[in-house]
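Please review this one:
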Amino acid sequence: MPARAYWQGQIRLALVSIPVELYPATKSGATIQFKQIHEPSGKPIHYEKVVNDIGPVDTDEIVKGYQVAKGDYVLLDQEEIDAVKLESKKTLELTRFVDASEINVLYYERPYFVVPADDLAEEAFIVLREALKRTGKVGLGQLALRGREYIVSLRPCGRGLILETLRYADEVNKAQAYFSDIGDAKPDAELLDLAEALIEKKSGPFDPKQFHDHYVEALYRLIDRKRKAKGKKIIEDEDDAPARSGSNVADLMAALKQSMEGGEIRSRSRKAPPKTTRKTPAKKTTTRKAPARKHG
């Protein structure tokens, strides 16, 4: 367990208070860190804090200010901001419980592991965890973390609990603004059957280890090639990139059928799998087989 908790406080349920600690449940992935460079000299560019008509200033001369009118600021130092009294800075009060399915995925932001702060808190912690499991509910409350107050959810996770910060309603865009122009047309039955079969073909358990960051790997390769080329400009060949364009039903049908090739697929749709005109691949020969059946 990390030496220092991200947050320490208590979860309160009615008259019951449970001392807990929060630890980040995620970490940043591998990224490429670029610096801005002055090309003629090859030296890195630095940034200074400057004031108009004064020039560079020291960090200890900087305070935070809120503009109340043009050129008029209310100045606050960090000690004054930290002293703001807010109960949710030290206490997460669970004020409502909902089904997990009621929370739209758009509202979830960042997860944290929650553990009891000491042995004395463990009994109440376990009672809360098991009660959430048995009811299938998610606890909701508000918690102040690092300069702002969040809506948070609390749910069981193995032997512990997971706390997730949530976005406020005004931080989530309304889907209708983006989806309203999408038509209400019913999909072609055969296309839908093929799409369902393709989904079945590619279905399986979630394993995040199967995915990795191709972009970071490509950047490392580019950096290596650039270093070996001694500064020569390198542009990736895009000839092999898949074309992206609108497609009609015939194109979509062909693409779905091609995606299904390579293995026997059993559709679990309610209807029987649609008959297609695709022929069984012929054996290698110099002549072409006649169609299996010919009427007329």
